[in-house]
Amino acid sequence: MRKLSSVILLVVAAAVLSFGQAQEYKIDPVHSSATFKVKHLLVSTVVGRFSDVEGTIWYDANDPSKSKVEAIIKTSSVNTDNSYRDGDLKQNYLEVEKYPEMKFSSTKVEKRGDQWVATGPLTIKDVTKTIEIPFDLTAATTPMFGPSVGASADFKINRNDYHVAKASVVDNGATVGTDIAIELNVEAHQPKPVK
């Protein structure tokens, strides 16, 4: 009887500890994207995207402060539908061989009214700066993947802050705008248990 009571106590303790803990979701690169917009010659807007997005989301619906996100974007996956421009971006702006990844890792996630906000360091090339990323979050259980979350965000950065510029050009933003509008759409799923 004492052994049974101990087992029950352990089960109850495990349930209490797991309640409210953040659940892990792996970002699905097939259903996730990072797009950007930047002015060209001050008159038009060029749209591009990074197709290789990966990372992990830890989500706690009851306590947002326990939530966290880590994301990595492969810089070589940039695509603006123009091979010459893509080559210029990879070689002269992003320097993809030297800096193959962009990274964000939240140090704080909070809910401000209905708006989620992730705060943490964003690393692009040789620069790391702490930023705030406001985002919307959806959680659901899907027939194909089971428990899933989706996040979308819109924010801006100044590319010169991250040394995303040609070294040989005086970068005043007249040719390529300095403000980059970024849109993130991420889908993530709980890893399936190993059998």
Commentary on this structure:
The chain has helices at residues 2-18, 83-93, and strands spanning 23-27, 33-40, 44-50, 53-59, 68-74, 78-79, 101-105, 108-112, 115-124, 127-142, 146-158, 179-189. The chain contains 2 helices and 12 strands; from the N terminus they run αββββββαββββββ. Residues 1-19 have low confidence and may be disordered. The chain starts with a helix and ends in a 6-residue tail after the last strand. The chain is globular and about 50 Å long. It has one domain (22-189): Lipid/polyisoprenoid-binding, YceI-like (Lipocalin). Helices cover 14% and strands 49% of the residues. The protein is mainly β.
In brief, what are we looking at here?
This protein is mainly β. The chain has 2 helices and 12 strands.
Topology:
Elements: H1 2-18, E1 23-27, E2 33-40, E3 44-50, E4 53-59, E5 68-74, E6 78-79, H2 83-93, E7 101-105, E8 108-112, E9 115-124, E10 127-142, E11 146-158, E12 179-189
Antiparallel strand pairs: 1-4, 1-12, 2-3, 2-12, 3-6, 4-5, 5-7, 7-9, 8-9, 9-10, 10-11, 11-12
